Amino acid sequence: MVENAPSGDEVDFVLSPPCSTITLASTIDINTNLLIEGPGASTLAVSGNNAVGVFDVASGVSASISGITVEDGNATSGGGIDNEGSLDVIDSTVSGNNANGGGGILNNGDTLEITDSTLTGNGVGYSGGGIYNETGLLTITDSTLSSNYATNEGGSGGGIYNDATATVIDSTLSGNSASSVGGILNGGSGTLTIAHSTLSGNSGGGIFNSGGTVSVAATIVANSTSGGDCSGSVTDDGYNIDDDGSCGFSGTSTSHSTTLDSTLGALANNGGPTQTIALLPHSPAIDKVPLADCPATDQRGAPRKAPCDIGAYDTDGTPTIKSFTPAKGRVGKKVTIKGTNLSGATAVTFSGTTAVITTDTATKVTTRVPAGATTGPIKVTTSVGGTVTSSKTFKVK
């Protein structure tokens, strides 16, 4: 079906049953300009059955793949996708694929753009467990690369191996591993730009520049095991933070933070199409980037509030209570609490007695005076900003 599609055609899927896996006997060759639209990565998977590669995009072809999972491909290069043309991967998952180079995706074409997607559990013997960008232009936006790996002695770039030009924006690399650089390896001919991203928990090192050019801005590099956060020359473009000092961050950036590790959450579903790493209360990465350097949204698509946070995830910031009305009332009385950064409220207490939250927004929380409450301050706790206590007391009649 795909091989015979005319140039510019669109391929859609009608599924029975609704959640389906298409198992391939041979690789799908995309030899003409094509748009492949699936119903969602959790609904449709295209599998190489650990025997063949899944997609091969020919030179000179422009293609888009969205809304599917590309899984269990096996090839010499590009286990999931071998791109020789121009390819967009959108709202998709690339998982469990294997190759000698480019376990998830090999880019040996003009452009590869990855947006709102997840690459996880892909492996190689040598270079680029998640992605090997051999030639062309790679752009990764609002995406997560996790648990990708390079297994062989000297295997490198568990997450990404870049030998050309790559840009990583508002994205997360976590839990990737290799004997040489689990996160991102930038080769001698590579140009790598990383901005507003989070690299945490990558085994074998976070970022390694082996002779090319690496520029980093507003990015977290932390929890890198057996290789350090950075190795080689890294240009600090400001508002970065690491936890071991190896990146050489200075000026507006923070080097060797002693509290960064303990204030990074686990990779989890924090909203949005991909998993992210939340900043926990009192993280040194919160509110460090000025308005002029803040993108409109974070990786999840949530608005960034200036000053915004370092990394791919932006918190709602530390909550404040400016006022509450009424100032007194009986049990069951509706109370409106106004302030800032109140969205994601997880608890409200009246002098230590827990109340039920009715609604919460960034500037307002509504609740009712709980049974057993006594006169005293009101406290509001949010999921990422911590707890704030009112300066005035609420009088329970």
Please provide a brief summary of the model.
The protein is mainly β.
How would you portray this structure in words?
The chain has 397 residues and is an all-beta fold. The termini are far apart. The model has no long low-confidence stretch (mean pLDDT 93). It is built from no helices and 42 strands. It has 2 domains: 206 residues, 3 Solenoid (Pectate Lyase C-like), CATH 2.160.20; 77 residues, Immunoglobulin-like, CATH 2.60.40.10. Helix content is 0%, strand content 45%. The protein has a 17-stranded parallel beta sheet that branches. The protein has a 10-stranded parallel beta sheet with strand order 2-5-8-11-14-17-21-25-28-31, with no helix packed on it. The protein has a 5-stranded mixed beta sheet with strand order 35-42-41-37-38, with no helix packed on it. The relative contact order is 0.07.
